[in-house]
Structure formats: structure tokens, C-alpha cells
Amino acid sequence: MLGEGILKGLGETARNFVGSFVSEDRLTTVEYPEQRLLPIENTRDFPFLVYDGADPDAGLRCVSCQICEKECPPKCIYIVKSTDKKPDYVGKPQFYPARFDIDISVCMSCQICVEVCPFEAIKMDTEFELSTDDRFGGLILDKHKLAKSNEHFQRIHPTEAAEVDARLAEEKEKVEAKAKAAAEAAAAKTAAESAAAKTAAESAARKAEDGSSGSDAEGVKP
Amino acid sequence: MNSATLDQFFVLLQHHLSALFPTVLQPWVSMILGVVGIVAVFPAIFALTTVLERKGLGRMQNRLGPNRVGPFGILQPIADAIKSLTKEDIVPRSADDVVHFLAPVVLVVAIFLGYAVLPVGRNMVLLNIDAGILLFFAVGASTELSIFMAGWSSRNKYSLLGAMRAVAQMISYEVPLLLAAVVAVMMAGSLAPTAIVQAQGGFTGIFPHWYVFTPWGFAGFALFVVAALAETNRSPFDLPEGESELVAGYFTEYSGFKFALFFLGEYLGMMSIAGYGITLFLGGWGAPFSFLTFIPSWAWFFAKLFLAIFFFIWLRGTLPRLRQDQLMNFAWKFMLPLSLLNLCVAAAWRFLGECLGSGTVAEVMRWLVCAAVLVLAYILLARTLLRRQNIRPRSYRYAD
Amino acid sequence: MTLTPYLIVAALLFAIGLGIALTRRNAILVLIGIELMLNAANLNLIAFWRFGPHPELMTGMLFALFSIAVAAAEASVGLGLVIAWYRHSKTTDLDEMARMKG
Amino acid sequence: MAVEPDLKIELGKQGVFVTTLNELYNWGRRNSVWPMQFGLACCAIEMIATTMARYDLARFGAEVFRPSPRQADLMIISGTVTKKMAPQVVRLYNQMAEPRYVIAMGACAISGGPFKQGYNVLKGIDRYIPVDVHIPGCPPRPEALIHAFMTLQKKIEAQPLTGEARPRHLNAEAQGEFPVPVPSAHDLNPPVNRLVWPLPAPNPGESA
Amino acid sequence: MKTSEQVLSELLAAMPEVKVSLLVNPSASAQHSLLVASEDALRVAAYLRDQLGYDYCSNVTGVDWLDKETTEKRKTSRIVLKQVDGVEQSVEETVEETVKRVDPGYLEAVYHLFSMKHGPTDPHPPLVIRMRTGNRSDAVELPSLTPVWRSAEFQEREIFDLYGIVFRGHRDLRRLLMWDEFEDHPMRRDYVDPDDYEYEPTPHDDVLKRAEQQRLQAAQGGAL
Amino acid sequence: MSDLAIQSYLPPVIEVESQDELLEVAMGPHHPSTHGVFRMDVALDGERVVRLKPVFGYLHRNHEKIAEKTTYLASMPYTDRLDYFCSMTNNWAYALAVEKLAGIEVPERAEYLRVITAELTRIQNHASAIGFLLQEMGASGTPLMYAFREREIILDLFESLSGSRMMCNYMRFGGCRVDLPAGWLDAARQVVAGLPRFIDEIEALLTSNEILMARSQGVGILKPDLAINAGVTGVMLRATGVNYDVRKVDHYGIYDRFSFRVPLGEHGDIYDRYMLRVLEMRESVKILEQAIPQLPAGPILDPKSKPRGFRPKPGEAYGRIEAPKGELGFYLISDGTGNPYRYRVRPPSLINLTILEDMCLGQNVADVVLIFGSVDIVLGEVDR
Amino acid sequence: MMEGFIFGLLAILTLVGALAAAVLRNLVHCALSLSVTFVGLALMYLSLGAQFVGLSQILVYIGAVAILVVFAILLTRGAGALTPHRLIAAAGWRLGWIASVAVGFVLIFALVRSPLPASGDQAAKVTVLQIGQALMGPYVLPLEVVAILLTVALIGAVIVAMPEDQKEMR
User: Fold this and answer.
1) Which residue in chain B has the smallest CA separation from D94?
2) Domain spanning F63-383: which CATH class is it, in words?
3) Span C36-76, pLDDT tens digits
4) Which of F78, F181, F205 sits opposite A42 (nearest CB)?
């Protein structure tokens, strides 16, 4: 009969109105600046560069292989490779980015850079409060703004970070064991050994540069 | 302070204040005080209503609504007012600037006039004239012209279409609105709002003699409410400003202060029509139960007003809007016959009362007869309406 | 106040209404003129009722009421005719209507 | 605009009163920002989500989405502005009454974002109209929009009403109408409004 | 449903005069297609729809095939008269020469057809029919299949817009996506984007170079 | 060729008394009800629509051109932005086409994950579509709010799975990108358990509402033969009574393992479309209830699939799925390089609009808005 | 004194409105100024103590007649541009004005010369109740006639203004 459906609808809204005072299901508002949603672990927003230790410059994992720059769908990464090298987390000398810019006014948060990075150097941040009235100053993030510590990574993505840390530690162990073995085997040939390490690192970097190979971390092992 | 003084608090205040002036000026001062009262109180309620509406809608939609400006967001309308008053006032180049300016002014002035005869409490009416209800309808009729002025002067297709719709709708619903109101006038035997309220004054047991508790009164009230919704362009009859088709209806081209005036006018119109609905059917300033009469009359009036406003908000939060032709059909093919029938039923009620005499059995008989006629008519009319529109619930088949 | 000023106003109103009806070409405006003349008559009725010898009889007032009702009827039919004519001939110009003769 | 010049003079004359009036005015403007009902692409959905129950932009008094640009204060450019759409956006902006604000929501609105390699995509709406707040993200989370909204509020609050730094709408010489680009055979004409989008430094990245 | 080969043979059986051939798709999907001559297309389409039940034309699209320049080395053997030991003899000699061949480019319209009539449970690969224009510049007309399948209406307009194929017999052939004043066909493979990266803040070399160029130009010309 | 008598399906021509009495209105591209930046050039005779031309391209973002300039994988995040309500199904359709092109198998667990995410997507899309339809009908947002309330819950699931609320970029050629995080399945089970209550609520609010019925029944009627000829798919098609659901037709993925039914309409009007969306939500809940407990263990990505250096053999493929809006297809031509030679999206939203003119002619303007809303389009997909 | 002042204001309002309706070029402006006249008249009735008639005047003339006129103008596309000067005036417009001015003159002359009752001090209090009783009592026949007239006029107007094709449908 005419009016029945309308009354039913009115009942539904009334239920929600009353419910909003008594039930949490019926008042789903999260008052953002004061309250926040529980962080979701996988959340991704913009990339950042992970560094180990305390010094962002020294501990940056990025070896400036430029894979992410090539694979980035909207082409928002800009890398200038350094001319010199510095040791990475296993102590192997590597290139590092002299300049690493991400234009987050272009970035589409697709995570492809993270997927393709063989060095676990670039990860996704969860920071979203980036609105600014300064388009260039605020939205083009340089190396210093991008660099965030591994602790930060562990805090925002604990599961992934734990995995990554375990893998890196394992690698480091392997490398150290190898180095130890090599050192024991050829303790005398110190000069020759250091030269070999250098070539290995170079070849790894070359491999990494080549787009078709080096898709996984194994590729970098000396 | 006893309850009687509290009840007459504002009347006495007006009296004492005007007594400070020389005798010649006293009626004028008293009048001005009344006007000031209306002009101060109702816009304040309007401001409160906007924030309550936004919060109420929010609650219906599982959210909070404005709550950051001032405590509980209560200062929100003040911020809106400051913003609106200082916002640039744009008059479109091709617009008719005089009419464009006059339209909102005429609207607000006309609607304020309607408050002159609205009794907001015992002895609290600005003009106690004989033909008060007629004044209300006359004033309501002139708001249509201002809406037309707004739509026409903007020289915008959407505005003009919105205005045409609004005027057509308001004219159509004015008829059932008037006819619904006439029932109460008939019974009270007066066009004066105060007399109508007084006619609903007494109590049977603890229950009051409000017209809404009679079959014809209830039907009249329901019809009045529906027509009032349409008359004030509230959901589900908010077609003139139907933003899904017409952007913002007749005030599309209005900005800043003038837009605020329209906004004000619209809400004042809603409150005034709600006030008359209360006066005609809900016993005006009367208390709902005999043991509650100690609460001042004006408090009852405003309590009822807020309830009515809440009802409007509730409807708005629930219902989608009708289409123009359905709206018209509804007015002419459903509302009009039903309200005419309701007139007859009211007359019958009167005569049955005289024929059957007094006594509980006679009362109940009368009640049942009148109610049955109305319910029957309602069912018949509703059925025809739905059948003509070919509306029915459906069932669905599935393919595996 | 006396009766005369009201009657003068009514007379002026009547003259203006007559003027509109006689001089404008638009059919709607002609109707407006006729309405004005009716209103002038109404004003007369009310004024005579008010200043007449027997205001308590309400004759003038009631007559004015009926006149308003009749005027409303007249306006609705008149405008309906104008619209119908406009549908037919696409003009509201009386001179042209006369020229076309249907 | 009628009120503004008078207000300005008034404010200039009276020393102590200025701050209070200034504050009151900015408080009113800040707390009653009505956005225009206007969405372009993906970000529009997040904008709608922001007004919905969980995030509830209404708490800031900003759920009054006005369908008509005349009554709106804020234009949230939510999504990709294509070259075909750009003239309409500028026209809408021109129709808004002062004071008016623009939030460029999402990568596309700021710079063309992921689609900036496209031939029909405008490389940032700030080529044609002044933007007050940029929100990066694709799309930005609803909280990010609220954050931008608060950033805008702070910006309004900090605006002095007199002097050089006064907002555009109190500056009589400031541009009111912005030139609307015309679609032509290969591109929009002009491709950029130099008054809002000046020539950048040779290497803007360096300065950051 | 039938395979493309079966459809082809049925078509040729019914209308032996039409020019239809099978194009084999070497990829894993094995969705082969029928190449239909443009003058027969409408008849073939109508037959497919009305007789073979392909009542649903799902996808219509254009493809741009550029002029293809193939260089191949060919070994040709020919008989040459040579002085061998003073005597003229005909000797067979193998010569290697490079031949440059230019296959003219063309635009292609591809239609993917399905059947709704024949069973909502019968899985079938799409029947693909294609039509080719004569070249990429002046002979770009193809018959419109909108009269047969209404679903082609907007898609053919889109192809007209983005590829520049002119569909004869289309009821409303205007640009679909780009504005009406636009003159290019942007999905063609040789289309050059308007140079509007000028002020991109993205610090990529070429963009920076262009920004610098623009700056210089502006400094010289003082253009706004 | 003119000797050929072909039965064509063309929109009706509305007779008008005189052309100059028509009111030409351009609804859009910023019109409040056009779901973004769509424009309709409408000619009105009074309130009756006598001519209607849709105008597209205000959101033409050159998706196809960009895809042809970049690698196969890099297009995946762009597909998220096609129909920005349904990134999961877009991902799936694209992955399916590439899998067909390159002949990649999908592990079983990944197939289940795809079904689960796709059906969740369908539910939130249909809920939002109903909400927007009611918004157009002027319901001041309440149904939309309820729809978005549930959508937020589903988006939370997506976010915890893929990292992003809307732009999931979750699927890969030959599987999915990441496995489920801990506790996801339980959360999903809880969400699915709560969905019937939500659908009941929406139905109580709307289904028997007389105003909704009055506005939608008998309005915007679409005939089945025209719908088929015009390539209309999805809910729009099934509301006319044609039984065609790509999930059932193509048996793609693992939909054969679930028992679900395809609701069919009868009148092909707005109300049928509304009801079909509601009923499809219920069927999706059924699928989810079956799929979640059945989820097998195993790998989620085909080992042949690699993120970089993906070069399928030359050839072409057309892959399609039943997206919430209709048949979403991807047509790819490979020339053996890392970039597709031709990349084409078959957008259901665009093709479903073909019959907009047919449905709207002769109707009231207010109905046009509703009819348009009932088609359920997303401009990102229409214009690409 | 006060009464005279109010009367003067109202008279000016009424006459200016009427004059504006007579000379303005835009039809909608004419209609709007006409409603100003109606308001002026209504106020005059009110000041004369004819409350009921005054309010009825507003209800009927503003709420119905003015709106009807405006609608008619819109429906006949007369609301758009200004009417060109040459199209405002009817063929014999000079004659018309002369005639109307003459009529007005004669009327006023007659008024001034005729002896009129100058009472009106006794404020006759007429209540709505009395009007109702009069309408239901001695004036019941005219009331019925007017009612029938209105109904017929309503139906007639609808039929006249209905488009041809719809008429045939009935």
C-alpha cells in the first residue's frame, strides 16, 4: 500500500540515527587529525630509500643501478650515479646515487620500483600528510628527504622488514663466511684478493645495469 | 517566579518595556518589540536548524556532522554567515539587476510577514487579527512571485526552469494545503489562529483536544504536512532545486549575501509553515498532557516546532525525490480529492455529533465511521494512483 | 479621510487601464489593462462601502469579493485563450491577429 | 566585492580593532569553506569517500557541496584535467565568487601525473589558475584530503587583510577573470597562462 | 561454436564470390582472424550476424601498420658469360645482394564477434574479422559495420578520431574523444605529441633541455 | 552494396512541432549528475527529450597510447585507473589477456584469490552504483553513505592485501603479486558474514519505496534485441532478460567450481537494473562464502612470469572477463618486443552508452539523469 | 494626518505601478509592476478596514493572476528580449491615449462636482464571521453562481489552453 515502503525506509534511517548514539557500527566516523585508523601493514604511499645504521649518506642501500628509473611507469625517478664508490652493507664497494629525486607530484604509488629493486633499497612509505602550497619545493623529494632508516621501515612494514633483514643477514653471513674462507685459503695473496673483489663488484653493477638480468638478489653476489 | 509568570514572561517583558515610553508611543513600541522579537528569534532558530539539520543528517548516515567550529559545531552557522556576507556578490552580465536584487528581499520580507499572525505562546501573537490564516496563505502566495523573479532575472536556463517548476509546484500544492487547513478552520469556526488554538484547548482525562486526534484532523494534518513539504520545496518534493537535473534551481546564479537570503527565506518558510501546522492541528502552544501544563506555553510551541523540523530532516535523509509529472499527478489526483473528501468527513463529524448525541458509544461510533470513510478513500485512491503508474513489487527469475 | 481621494485614485487607475487596453499590441498586456480597470471598480466598491451610509450591511464589500472571483475567472480564461491563440499562430500581437483573421 | 574595500579602509584606520576583525573574518572564511560539487576522475571518488561516513568532511563544516560555482568557495580539482576539459575548468573557476580557493588533488591535477605522457592531458592545472594547496598521491587517501583542507585553513588563517601579502580577492588590481584556453588544431591555445605560471628556474630540482 | 576455419568455409560456400582469407595467429591464444575485403565486408557481416549467429560484436578497434622497410640479403645465381682461360664460357655464379623492400603501411579495423544466440554456456573464442585500408594517407575509407552491429557506432567513431579511418555509411561520424577542432590522429604510430613538457618540473634531462630552450626562446622573443 | 537489406537498430526519431521551440541544454561536462565529466547535448521540447547526443573525451587520458610506449607490466597500474571502482577486475582482465597471449598458466591459489577479490569488487561497485543512482534521484546521500560504509570495509581488505585502497595493482601475469597477509582470511570471512545484513538494509531502505518504484519502473526501457545488437553487456543486458554472463559463458578462472545463479530481469527498466545489482550482490556473497573456505595452499605466481624483460611471442589475443560494469576485454598485439604493439581496452562503460540515446528519447529530463545513472559508467573507462 | 500620509503613499505606489505597466517595454517588467499595483490596492483595502477583501486581493491577484500572467508571457516567449518600440503600440495608439485621458478627465471632473457622503468616521468593524454569515445567508445565491462560474472557467481555461494533439487524445 502507498506509504508502506516509505515508512519502512524511515524506520531504517531512524534505526541508524538512534544507532549512531549507541553502536559503533552505526557511527563509523574516525575523527582524523585526533584519531587515526589502525595502520595497515601493507599500505603504500610513496617510495623512500632505506639506509642501514645511523648515517643516511653512508648506509644508503641504493647502488644507483637505475633499474627503478627505467621501470617506473610514469617516469618520476631521476638518478645520477656517483663517480666514486663506497662500501655497502657487506663492505663491498658500490656506486651510490649522487642524486636521487622522486617527483611525488607524478608518482602513482604503484610499487613497481620496489618490485624490481634487486637491493631492497627502495620501499614504500606510509606517510601521506604531504599537502603543501609549494609545488616544487614540497613535492620533488631529493635523496635526503627520501632517505629513511631501516628502523622506520621495520616500524611501518614489520613483516616485510623482518623478511628483508633475515635475507640480508643471511647474505652477509654467506659473504663473510666466503671471505673468511678465502682469507684463510689465501692469506698471503692480500693484494690479489682485493683486486678480485673489486672486479666482482664491478661486474655485479654492470649486471644490474643490464635490464634483462639481475632480477633477483642472487645476481649481485660476488 | 510561578508558572503563570513564566508562561507570560515575554508578554510581561514587552509590556514593562513599552511602559517606559510615553503613552502615545506605547502601542508602537510594543509593536516594534514584537517585531524585533520575531526578527531575532526565528533567524536564530534558522541558524540552529541548519547546524542541527547537518548533524541530524550526519547521524542518519552514520557520521558526526559539523563538530569542529565551536563547541559541538554550534558556531558553524556564524562562520557560514560571516563567509556569506563577505563573499563577492556576482550579478551575471545579462541579468536583470533590479529584479535580481529584489527577488530575495521580497521573499524574506513576505515570509517574515507570515510570522505576524503566528501565535508562539499564550497571548504571544503580534497581530491578533480575524483573518490570520488568510494572511498566511496570502503571504505564501506572494513568495511564488519572488521565486519567479529570481529565476527569470538570472537569465539562465536552469534558473528559469527551476523557477517554473517551483511556481507550478507551489500553486498546485497551495490548493490541498488550503483545503487541509480549512478543516481546522471549519471546526474552530474562526480564521484567527489564536481562536483555533483555543478551540483545541481542553483535556479529556490527560489527553488534549487536538484536532490531530480526530480522523478528519489526522487526515488533514497528514495532507497538510505533505502539501507543506511541497510548498517549501523540501525533500521529497525538492525538484525546483533538484541538483541532479537543474544544478541549483532558481538560485543557481546567486552568490554571497543574496544567496544567504534565499537560504534564510527557505528555512523561515519551512518554520512558518510548520508553525501553522502546529497551530491548526497540534494544539499550538498547548501542552500534550494535562499534567504538563505548568511548562510555559511558548516552550511547548518551540518544542513542537523543533519536532516538526526534525521530521522534515528525517524525511530529507530518507527519501528520493519525485518527478515533476508525478508530483503534479499526486497533487491533483490524490491530494485534492482526498482533501475535498476530508472536508465532507469533517462536516459529517459535526452532524454525526449532533445526531448521535453525546456518550462514549456515540463517540466511538462517530470515530469509526469517519475513520472508515477516510481509510477506504485512501486505499481506493492510492490503488488507482499506483495502478495508473503501473507500480508494483516484482519477483525475479534466475538462470543457472 | 474622505471618499473623494479614493475615487480619484480609482478613476486614474481606470484611465490607465483603459489606456493600456487601447494602446498596447500585446494581447496579454491588454488583459492586464482590463484587470486594472476591474481593480479600479473594486476600489470604488470598497470605498463606497467604507464611506457609505450603511457599512454594516457589507454590500459593497461582498460585491468586491465577488468581483475579485469573477476577475480571476476572467483572467484564467483570457490567458488560456491567448496561449491557445499563440499555439495556433505563434504571435500574441493583436494587430497581427487581426490581419491574419484566424 | 562591495563590502571589501570599505572593510579594508575601515581596518586601516583602526589599529586595535584590526586584529579582531581580521581574525573574525578569517575565522569565518576558514570554517565555512563550501566546496564545489565537481569531480574529474579517480580522485573524485576519494573526494566523495572523504565526505562519507568514515572520514566525514562535514566535521569541518565543508560538506555543503554546492552544485553552482557561484555559491562555492573551494574548487577541488580531483583528477586528471584533460586538454578538452581545461577550458571548462577555467570557466568554472571564473564563475566562482571571491574569495575562492583551489586544491589540486592528486598527481594528475598537479602535474598530469602518471598520464602526463599523454597527448590530451594537461600537465598541471596551475598552468591556468592559481592553486592554493597541492596534494600528492594517486589518489591521495581521504585523510590526505582532510590534511590538505586543514592546510588550506591554516593558510587562510594566516592571511593578513592589508598590505602586500593580502589575499588576491582584496587586491583591486589582481586578476579576476582568467583567460580561458581555446582548443585548436594541435593543442590548447595558449598552452599556458604566464601570469599564473611564470617561467621556472632552469633547474628547479636543484633548489629543493 | 565453430572455428574460424569452419566459418570461412561456410562463408565461401554460401557466397563464393567474396574475398575472405584466413590470417593465422601464431601466439598461444590461437585466435585466428578472417581478412575481409572492404567491398564485401557489409555482406559478410550481415551473413555472419543473420545466418551464423554472430549477433554480438564486442570489440572494434583500429591498428596502424607503418610502412615496413625490410632489408634482406638474397643470394641469386645467374649465368654469366666470362672469359675463362681466354674462352668465353657461361658460368653459373652466385651473387649476394641486398634488396630493400617497402611494404606499404595500412590501417586496419578489427572486429571481435561473439554469439549470444548460441548458448550462454558454450565457450567459444571470438571470431575476428579485419578490414584493411589501401594506405595510410588518402585511401583510408572502409565500410561502416554500424548498420549491422550498433555496438560499432562509438568504437568506429573512436577509430575515425584516433586513427583516421573514414567509415562509409556511418550515421554520425564525428570525433569521439578529441575536440572537434583537433586535426591529428593521435593513435597513429607516427604521431608526434605537442611539445608541452616545457615547464615540467620533473628533472629529466630532455625535459630540462626543453625547458632551457623555451626559456631562451622566451628571452629572445619576449613572447608571452 | 546498397542492394543489401540489413536490419539496423537505430534510435527513434522524435517528431517535434517546430524546431525553434526546442530548448537546447548542454548537460555537463561539470553537471552535478554526470558522474564526472560526461556531457549530453540535449534538446528539450518542454520537459521531453527529443534529441540527445553524448559527448565524450573530457577524461581521455591516452591510456592506450601510453601503454603502447611502455612495457607490459607498466600498464598494469594504469589499468587500475580505467574503471577506478574496480581495479581488481581490471587487473584480472588485463592479466587474462596477457596470459592468453603468452600462454601462461595461473596457479590455483592465485585463481582463488582472483575470484575472491573480483567478487568483493563487484559487491562494492554495485553498492556504490545503487548509491549514486539514488543520489541522482535526490536521496541526499543516505543510500550512498551506507554503500560507502560497506565499501570502506571492503577497501580495508584490499588495502591490507595490496597496499592501496583503490589502485590495487595486485595481479600479475600468471598470478598475483603478494600472498595474503596474516589474518586476512578471517577478516574477509567476517566482512562477508556482515554483507547480507547490509544488503538487507539497503533493500529495506529502497526496494519497496514507492518513490523509487514510481521513478524507476517503466522508465528507460531497453529491448533485448537492441541490447544484443548494441553490444550492451553486464547488468544492463541481463536486466532485459538476456542470459549472458561471461563468467558462465567463458568459464574463465575457476568460476565453474562455484554454484551461483544469474538473476535476469524482465522489463529492462531502471528498477530491474537496480534489483539485478542487489541480487548479484547476494550471488557474489554466495561465491565468496564458497571460495574463502576452499582457498588452497600453494604458490601464487607462475614461475615463468618475471617482472622484467617480459617479451611474448608475436601474435595477438583478446581476453575478456565479466567486470561489474559488463564485459571488459583487452586486445593485445605483440610484435615480439617488450612493449605491446597494440593495446586496446574494450570498455563496457562506453559501449553500454551506445543505447543511451535510444532509452532517453521521448522521456522526461529528470528521467534522463536516472537512466544515465542506471547505466553505471565510469568516465575513466569510457574515455580511457 | 497619519491616515492621509499612508493613503498618499499607497496611492502613489498604486498609480506608479499601473503607469509602469503601461509604458515599460519588457513584458515581465509590466507584469511585475502590475503586481505592485495589486499590492498597493490590497493595502488600501486593509487601511479601509476591509481586511478580508484585502487579503483575498493578495491571495487571488498576486498568488494567481500575476503568476498566470507571468506564465502566459513565458509560454508565449514574450519574456526574452525587449519588444522593439514600433511593436509596442497598437495601430491607433494615439487615439487610444487621447480617449483614456479624456475618460479619466471626465471621471475626475464628475467626481469633484458631485456631492458625496463624507462620513466614514464610524469605524465599522466587520469580522470574518459576519462576512461568512452574510455569504451563507442573504448572499448564498451569488456565492453559488460564482462558484459555478469559477469551476466552469477553470475547466474552460484548461480546455482552451490544451495543445491540439492532447485534445484529440481525450
Assistant:
1) B90
2) mainly alpha
3) 888 898 888 888 888 777 777 778 888 888 888 888 888 88
4) F181
